[in-house]
Amino acid sequence: MNPVTFHAPQASAEALRLAAGGAAALIAGGTNLIDLMKEGVMRPAALVDISNLPLDGIDATAQGGLLLGATARNADTAYHPLVRSRYPLLSAAILAGASPQIRNMATDGGNLLQRTRCHYFYDIAVPCNKRAPGSGCSAIGGLTRQHAILGASEHCIATHPSDMCVALAALSAVVHVSSQQGERRIDFADFHRLPGANPERDNTLLPGELINAIELPPAGQFAAHSAYLKFRDRASYAFALVSVAAALDIGPDGAVRAARVALGSVAHKPWRVPAAEDLLVGQQAGSTAFEACADLLLAGARGQGQNDFKIPMARRAVVRALEQAAAGTIDNMHAPADSAGKEPL
Ligand SMILES: Cc1cc2nc3c(=O)[nH]c(=O)nc-3n(C[C@H](O)[C@H](O)[C@H](O)COP(=O)(O)OP(=O)(O)OC[C@H]3O[C@@H](n4cnc5c(N)ncnc54)[C@H](O)[C@@H]3O)c2cc1C
Ligand code: SF4
To answer: Which of 42, 77, 260, 272 could form a disulfide linkage to 170, CB 3.0–4.6 angstroms apart?
Structure first.
């Protein structure tokens, strides 16, 4: 048994003091951290519960964007009227993930920091460079159906499993963080990192840093033409094999004025290639341009054998997501929110 000290601060300054240095683990919804503690993957000596901090607001910014508090629940975010009207892509991505029960508990900040679902990472009996740096990678040469086709290294081929983050990448979100040293902002493209020689580091947060909020820049021009597609082994309650967030701004002449495309579950981070999006600009929204975009997005993709199928799957998924986005945003709010904004269990 591992004894754990539990703190439930009421103010951010106290939470930052307790979190300083990174020895204590912050806990928000607990839907990932508690699983990792039960498996023995994480053994923090102290937990700092951040759910009492005033970080659960969802507020419009003066610039026309939105600020999602770190402890806002995934369900409340997905069903928030401003998210639904301005960022339907984000609503769709969140609702494609997990289950209603988990989305009611999981927070926006925690979603960004959920760990990989590589099965070897969860099995403390086998080597894993992400869990135990320098021990080796059991996935390479092992079971690789869900693993990376882009951006992997010889040290780790894990994928980032989040659906929400794929939409946040496409929407060019900015992560607001603070520590005892002050506050800073991290562009979403720089928040998660590729594994390189240090796969134990999933992101660029520093020890003791707390996510306060996620800022969505104004993106009204994409609201009418966006789509989130998720391909998985069963219809619900499963992580993606491949997912795509696509958003288009289409002019009255049918030409693309701006485009965003991000792939999920294919790399250690949501995968975006701005040059592939630029290829669409000025082109008629149609399959010729969409296929060229998909080809550039997947340039350099390499499978591990069992996951080779992900390369053509991702290419077709990009084209289909762009076709769906061009046709118009689908309102896939499949579960009605109750009056408290929560999902029915
Ligand atoms: C069965 C199951 C199925 C799932 N399916 C999906 C899916 O299909 N798609 C998907 O995207 N997700 C899925 N999830 C993952 C789920 O979305 C995450 O577990 C959840 O978003 C994590 O949020 P949390 O608040 O519970 O985080 P916690 O478990 O509380 O924390 C996760 C990590 O984030 C850190 N942390 C939390 N908040 C902060 C903060 N504000 N600042 C700094 N550090 C912080 C914690 O220290 C911890 O390391 C699934 C989970 C389960 C259990
Ligand atoms: S792919 Fe990464 S997480 Fe999975 S076993 Fe290898 S090092 Fe560990």
So the answer is: 260
Contacts 24+ apart (CB under 8 A), 273-280: 273/297, 273/299, 280/248, 280/256, 280/322
Query: Residue 279 above 90 pLDDT?
Result: yes
- Ligand 2 centroid from CA 139, angstroms: 6
| Burial track 15-31 (b if 16+ CB lie within 10 A, e otherwise) | bbebbeeeebbbbbbbb
Percent of the chain with pLDDT over 70: 96
Q: Could you identify the atom of ligand 2 that is nearest to the CA of residue 195?
A: 2
The two counts, helices (H) then strands (E), for the chain are 13, 11
Which atom of ligand 2 sits closest to the CA of residue 129? 7
Cα–ligand 1 centroid distance for 76 (angstroms): 15
CATH number, span 222-327: 3.30.390.50
212-266 confidence digits (pLDDT tens):
999 999 989 999 999 999 999 998 889 999 999 999 999 999 999 999 999 999 9
The SS3 call for residue 203 is strand
- 5-52 belongs to which CATH class? alpha beta
**pLDDT at 307 > cutoff 70:** yes
Cβ distance 344 to 335 under 8 Å? yes
- From the list 168, 12, 179, 2, the residue with the least C-alpha distance to 93 is 168
Q: Which atom of ligand 2 is nearest to the CA of 142?
A: 5
Cβ of 50 less than 6 Å from ligand 1: yes
Predicted structure pTM score: 0.96
* CATH 3.30.43 domain position(s) in the chain: 5-52
> pLDDT tens digits, residue range 107-159?
999 999 999 999 999 999 999 999 999 999 999 999 999 999 999 999 999 99
* C-beta 163 within 6 A of ligand 1: yes
